């Protein structure tokens, strides 16, 4: 809460900033790498010395409320080059005023709620086990998630807020689905690049593929910098890389849990024509 309040009160958006928004475990890590590589494309022509190979995506693209403003009401942002790239899990209604009012570009990524929940459950349990707290039973966690008792609020509210905003303000808010990015990576990355004003040339797929290779799960998850050590907030870097697959819920959820999550998703999204 301290980080959220401090972000709301103190963060001053610049019109050139880009904000990447997700609910936890929607593949934020991947989008951080993709946007960082995209925006900084002119600075790194050779991928062998790319910062993504020596720094964690979470160090290169910090969370406003979890990293920058959590214990600091006035973080030093002076070394960041334009366009500055930040990330957040805040819902639309909780964003700082300066972000809502400016021309700030928002890129929102969501993921199938069943996969998001399974990823969250695994992530929290890894942290609990490390702290000798014992695993959280899945039934209990699923019950809370379905009731909307989640970090940063109910997943469905968070997604809908940004989905509606993307329909109303398509030049300000881009709405992405992880599953689409996995299925049509080249098209989706071209779309994001166009939205951010750094489009790829029409007839060349190689620069797009180069970013996708650099940011692939296989490449990044094996790097020493993502396997060892902790982030500044104390979380093991390796916990952010598990499987990176679409549909892994099938190996984890009971049919009842899956049905319940599907039912909520259908009830909340169908009247808006949104499918996840
Ligand atoms: P799984 O737990 O399903 O494997 P977040 O980044 O929002 O914390 O979400 C973490 C999820 O993103 C994890 O999903 C993790 O494996 C996946 N992930 C991290 N880096 C990725 C990458 N480069 N490509 C694809 N998925 C990635």
TrEMBL record:
It comes from the Eukaryota. Pfam families: Sulfotransfer_1. Its EC number is 2.8.2.-. The keyword Transferase applies. One of its GO terms (molecular function) is sulfotransferase activity. Residues 16-272 form the Sulfotransferase domain. InterPro entries: P-loop_NTPase (IPR027417), Sulfotransferase_dom (IPR000863). Keywords: Transferase. Belongs to the sulfotransferase 1 family. This is Sulfotransferase. It comes from Trapa natans.
């Amino acid at each position: 809460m301290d980080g959220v309040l401090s972000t709301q009160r103190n963060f001053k958006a610049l019109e050139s900033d880009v904000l990447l928004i997700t609910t936890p475990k929607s593949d934020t890590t991947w989008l951080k790498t993709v946007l960082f590589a995209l925006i900084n494309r002119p600075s790194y022509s050779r991928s062998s010395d790319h910062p993504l190979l020596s720094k964690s995506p979470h160090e290169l693209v910090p969370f406003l409320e979890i990293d920058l403003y959590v214990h600091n009401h006035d973080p030093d942002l002076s070394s960041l080059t334009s366009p500055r790239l930040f990330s957040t899990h805040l819902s639309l209604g909780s964003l700082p005023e300066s972000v809502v009012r400016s021309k700030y570009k928002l890129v929102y990524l969501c993921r199938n709620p069943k996969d998001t929940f399974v990823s969250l459950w695994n992530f929290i349990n890894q942290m609990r086990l490390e702290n000798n707290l014992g695993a959280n039973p899945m039934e209990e966690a699923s019950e809370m998630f379905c009731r909307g008792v989640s970090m940063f609020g109910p997943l469905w509210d968070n997604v809908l807020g940004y989905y509606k905003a993307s329909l109303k303000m398509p030049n300000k808010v881009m709405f992405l689905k992880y599953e689409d990015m996995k299925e049509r990576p080249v098209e989706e990355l071209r779309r994001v690049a166009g939205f951010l004003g750094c489009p790829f040339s029409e007839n060349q797929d190689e620069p797009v593929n180069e970013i996708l290779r650099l940011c692939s799960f296989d490449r990044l998850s094996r790097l020493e910098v993502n396997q060892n050590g902790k982030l500044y907030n104390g979380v093991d870097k390796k916990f952010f890389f598990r499987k990176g697959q679409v549909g892994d819920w099938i190996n984890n959820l009971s049919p009842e849990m899956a049905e319940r999550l599907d039912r909520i998703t259908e009830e909340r999204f169908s009247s808006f024509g949104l499918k996840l």
